[in-house]
Write a structure and sequence with these properties.
The protein is an alpha/beta fold. The protein has 19 helices and 20 strands. A seven-stranded mixed sheet has the order 13-12-11-10-9-8-15, covered by helices on one side. Helix 16 packs across helix 17. It is elongated.
């Protein structure tokens, strides 16, 4: 595998009903075409050697004899290729006929898998010709005088890759064979299908494939018959679908007259990680069939590094597309209802938030306003405090004050400069030295003000820090790191910005909208260092720790999938190929792992906060890590990456 990926294809060949040699010629051409694209595994539709709609011709010995001859010819003509191919055809065994999938590679038939569930309702009458794999007792089948492994419980394995096969109707039953096969190790399922078209059936079929790939935590490659099948009563549109763990990766054009080859990559590494983390996955194994046979094979090697054709999302935390509105509202509702429950429990009179004019405090304020509206608590009981310091600029100050007033919450301004200067004098620190003491003094003074105001007003300090800052440790310990409830704890910086902008455009009046949009355009900064002579921000966070879009990408793949630095680097090259060069990716990846390990002590004592997505740092459940763990092997792997 190339850093955890395998390359698969679902093929829809041109077809003539009952013309076996025409059909295998088309199949052979697609196998060669796929092999040239470095495909490792390819499957064709159900009964693709003969055609699905042969009907009573299936009982003709001429068809069956020539189907076997055509298969052997196909296997021989592709013997020089290491691609593993799966075709469908009728085969005779134990005085019966089975609808079967034949697996072959490099001139050798590896095994034959029969269809288990034979439909016999409405337009389907397969039981007229075919028997179920459940009715066959033998475990070998004869094809052209040679014996091959046979059975519905065959798996084809090579190290981390294990292939299971089901055929058409098998997917549509309550417990598909693939459910059993996956608990025995299959992580790639191939489905050879015919499946005619009806109004609404395509959407339902697609949902079945995505759902089964999710339930099985597997890759699912589906190929269904297309143009060329008989149109006596049915029409076949040609469906090639590749899905992975609930996500549709690629699909064919339906109702196309030409052959089609749909190619994508399946992420075996992520699938294996999810199965390992989900300790419930194997619980049903005791209820499955025990007689599993494993057929070994050798996977075709991919070029290294392989260029991915599948989309690698550079912004994995940000919702997009048709579900944008639903996802944004869901995220906000999780945050709002978490805070609402905390207020319902504590019976606090007020909320206290430090408003800086930056993204994080803005989102926290918006969430608090929504929670108070939900609970029918007057917004005036939200106390928004702006605390100008040595680095506060006019832009952020103006936005902070304007936002507080536009949302109708209580405004307070408490400068921290005199208190910090007094503290510098107390501890003997020269205020002209802008070091970590200079910066953290300001952060802790602000937190002290917020905590004490909350005590005075019987309120809660609402935390503003986000998940990205927690990953990098970009927070002052016992300063902005601490609160009484952290509404942004599991919201990464890229998502914070997106949510603020979405709320501005969809839920705000003009006055608040303009302020919010200017906040999203303001450079991210803690503003702990004095501004320049023109009043501009001098301390740009992303200049110091790196672009948050990169760090959020690194966070996602590190925590969600346990990915190695080399794999993250490989994925980032694909996701950001038009934006960052390899040297830049390597530099910030090293920074990420160095800071991530060094700053765990801050994550080990986080305040409560709602879990929103699949990644969270809560020490109470999602991320438990020793604060003194060594980063050496991660950093070494980064250092060895080739630029």
């Amino acid at each position: 595998m190339n850093l955890g990926f395998v390359k698969v294809a679902a093929a829809i060949p041109r077809l003539k009903v009952a013309d076996c040699f025409f059909n295998i010629h088309q199949i052979e051409g697609l196998i060669h075409k796929a092999d040239a694209q470095h495909v490792q595994f390819i499957c064709f539709p159900e009964l693709s050697v003969t055609g699905y709609t042969c009907m009573d011709i299936f009982s003709q010995q001429t068809l069956l004899n020539n189907a076997e001859k055509a298969l052997i010819q196909l296997v021989e003509k592709t013997s020089g290729l290491s691609i593993l191919s799966i075709v469908g055809m009728p085969l005779r065994i134990e005085n019966r006929l089975v609808n079967a999938a034949v697996v072959f590679q490099q001139g050798k038939i590896l095994g034959v898998v029969p269809k288990t569930f034979i439909p016999n309702y409405k337009e389907f009458q397969e039981q007229r010709w075919f028997s179920s794999g459940n009715e066959i007792y033998g475990n070998e089948i004869t094809i052209a005088g040679a014996r091959y492994p046979f059975g519905k419980q065959l798996l084809f394995s090579d190290n981390d890759i294990t292939i299971g096969i089901e055929i058409c109707e098998d997917l549509w039953v309550p417990i598909p064979p693939s459910s059993d096969l996956c608990m025995h190790g299959a992580n790639l399922i191939f489905n050879l299908s015919a499946s005619n078209e009806l109004i609404g059936k395509h959407r339902y079929r697609q949902s079945l494939i995505k759902q089964q790939s999710a339930r099985c935590i597997a890759g699912y490659v589906y190929s269904s018959a297309g143009f060329g099948e008989s149109s006596t009563d049915l029409v076949f549109s040609g469906n090639a679908i590749i899905a992975e763990n609930g996500t549709l990766l690629k699909s064919s054009e339906r109702f196309c007259l030409e052959e089609q080859l749909v190619v994508s990559e399946i992420d075996i590494a992520n699938l294996q990680n999810d199965r390992m983390v989900d300790t419930s996955f194997m619980k049903g194994l005791q209820c499955t069939e025990k007689e599993i046979r494993r057929i070994p094979f050798e996977t075709k090697q991919l070029p290294c590094p392989m260029q991915l054709t599948r989309f690698v999302d550079p912004y994995p935390f940000i919702p997009f597309g048709d579900e944008l509105k639903e996802r944004c509202e869901e995220i906000l509702n999780i945050q709002v209802h978490g805070l609402a429950k905390r207020y319902d429990h504590t019976k606090s009179n007020s909320a206290v938030i430090g408003i800086s004019g930056g993204l994080d405090s803005t989102l926290a304020l918006l969430i608090t306003v929504m929670a108070f509206d939900l609970l029918h608590i007057p917004r005036k009981r939200i106390i928004g405090i702006t605390m100008p310091g040595f680095g506060t600029t006019d832009r952020t100050y103006t936005n902070a004050v304007g936002l507080i007033h536009s949302l109708g919450v209580t405004f307070r301004e408490i400068s921290i400069q005199k208190a910090c200067l007094q503290h510098f004098a107390d501890i003997g620190h020269d205020p002209s030295i802008h070091d970590v003491t200079y910066e953290n003094t300001q952060a802790r003074e602000r937190t002290q003000i917020l905590m004490n105001v909350a005590n005075k007003e019987n309120g809660l300090v609402i935390g503003t820090g986000d998940l990205s800052e927690l990953a990098l440790g970009w927070a002052t310990y016992n300063g902005d790191h601490m609160s009484m409830y952290g509404v942004n704890n599991s919201i990464p910086k890229t998502l914070v910005k997106h949510l603020v902008e979405w709320v501005a455009r969809n839920k705000m009046d003009n006055a608040s909208r303009d302020i919010l949009l200017d906040i999203t355009d303001t450079p991210i900064s803690p503003e702990l260092i004095p501004a320049d002579s023109n009043g501009n921000i001098t301390q740009i966070t992303e200049d110091l720790v790196g672009p948050y879009e990169l760090h959020d990408f690194f966070i996602y793949h590190t925590l969600r999938f346990g990915a190695t630095p080399a794999r993250i680097y490989y994925l980032a090259q694909s996701a950001f190929k038009d934006k960052y060069d390899n040297a830049t990716l390597k530099k910030w990846l090293h920074t990420f792992f160095r800071r991530f390990f060094a700053q765990q002590f801050k994550r080990s004592c986080l305040p409560d906060g709602p879990k929103v997505g699949s990644v969270s740092f809560s020490p109470r459940g999602d991320w438990r890590m020793p604060s003194d763990a060594s980063a050496a092997i991660w950093l070494k792997e980064v250092e060895e990456l080739i630029v």
